[in-house]
Amino acid sequence: MSATGYSFIDTHAHLGMLEHSPIDEIIARAKAQGISKMITVATHEESWGINEKLAAHSPDIYFTVGLHPHDAEKVPNCEKNLKAFYGGSQHKNKCVAIGETGLDFFYNFAGKEAQVAQFETQIRLAQEWDLPLVIHCREAFEELFKSLKKVGVPKKAGVMHCFTGTTSEALEAVKMGFSISFSGIVTFKNAEALRDTAKEVPEDRLLIETDCPFLTPVPHRGEKNEPSFLPHTAKALAVARNISVEHLAKITTENAMRVFSLF
Description:
With 263 residues, the chain is an alpha/beta fold. The protein has one domain: Metal-dependent hydrolases (TIM Barrel, Alpha-Beta Barrel), CATH 3.20.20.140. It has helices spanning 23-32, 45-57, 78-88, 112-129, 141-151, 167-175, 192-200, 230-241, 245-259, and strands spanning 8-13, 35-40, 61-65, 95-104, 133-138, 158-160, 178-182, 206-208. Strands 1-2-3-4-5-6-7-8 form an eight-stranded parallel β-sheet. Helix 4 (112-129) links the parallel strand 4 and strand 5. The longest helix has 18 residues, at 112-129.
């Protein structure tokens, strides 16, 4: 039995970015806190191979391939390169999604046109490979929904990761078939509006994540985030929804298994 007594799935971690401890120690701490499975998510081209190796390292780690909107102008041959990598992967069965992809009009580290083009490319790949999308969206939901309607939501839809939008945006995404994932932000004192949104997400569309090494939850602010901290997010979400942590663990685990076709 884990220290928490419950089982969780971290649906969005950047394990390749964790340098504060050896990966085996990070995995061991996660297991001790009830983290049964982890998905290590790609952001740029160099992360594809790193995440594939991490997934091969453990039966309970899965990976994604994709290009973050911040890097939309850095890989002009994104489609060609993704197809070459995915086609040649020896661990393709553990690649469970395309992403993280999407749009970020808050930082605008890449031009809007390039972001939209790369996002729509990855929507088409998700359709072709029958994989869900892991979507990053910040201050760009109108354009994001427009692209999804234009290209077509993949059969397996996917997840709006680290959701920070409005309740209406969350429900629009749900209507399109997506799940909504909440990170350590829900533990922050000033995140009351986000906790209110979390109350409105249908139970069968709810997911949790760390987004580590970013967004460390209370009470570990100031430390590097890691999967073992996920129960803090789960507890805050359970309180917001007025349900038990046990029930929250059960539904989010079931949802993650279904969304990402985990085994």
